[in-house]
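> run fold DNA polymerase III subunit delta'
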Amino acid sequence: MAKNVEELFTLQPVVMKQLQTIFDKNRLAHAYIFDGEKGTGKVDIMQFFVKLMLCEQPNQNVPCETCRNCRRVDSGNHPNIHQIYPEGQFIKIDQIRELIAEMKMMGVEEGRKIYVLHHADRLNIASANMILKFLEEPDGEVTAILLTEQMQSILPTIRSRCQHIKFQKMPRHILLKHLQDNNISYSMASTVSMMTNELETAMILANDEQFAHARKTVLKLIEAIRQNVHEAMLVVHEEWLPLFKEKGEMEQALDLLLFAYRDIVSIKANPEAACTYPDMLQTFKEAALHSTYERLSSQMESILQARSSLQRNMNRTLMMEQLMLNLQEGYTFV
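> ok
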């Protein structure tokens, strides 16, 4: 396994307890859907569960890691395990046809057979109907595990025949620790952990010079807004608009701006609150003292309206100018 049992319990305590109870009570179903966003540990926990089902000497519902079966699961060479990945955009009917043929063959290996469908939401209609029939009529000791980030895209008839295992997002404090363990500063880790809860994506963002520049520009705009509308307009025209040219870049920048105002609200409620921008703590404490919840709520609503206008392809210059006016309206200068 990529992660040890303790790490898996920290990441998904409810799921791990659920799977261990299923094994302990000998209530193994013939099919499971592991449903969760990228980065929630689905593949590592699938590996744990598969190994637990095949382990020769499990101890307290944990695989021994040393028996022949455990070693073969780790090496990817266990003959009773079949894993299917999409070929191109979809999992195709020929892949499912071949899988079913293999599962029905009398192999040299006794015991439970397990097949795993990665990105099961990408079954096309034909392959979904074929796997559905196999789910309805499993042959012997067979367990299916369907992994997905898009539960709603799986046919309801397939979902109804599988036990649903729901994975929660990675807790933010765990992601923060992973990032800091990888030499990401606490300030940057705090910001990227608000943008994504997937470690790989967070690492890419944290090491991206463009994202660092975006973060710096957003915070500069916050400072300008606290001064006066003219300073805010200057930053918008000289730095914001030239930097955020693409729609996706502008969306991300507005999200970063919204998180700043959320920080101010959080600090107003609790000066020790965890922030997206811990390096701005003193500045945001001062802003919180000189604003009201009503005003901050109105400012956040203005940012959300700007984001909505962006989706309607409103002129971005006009949108940002209007946003600056809205953010300034009624602002108490300090």
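Residues 247-269 form the longest helix (23 residues).
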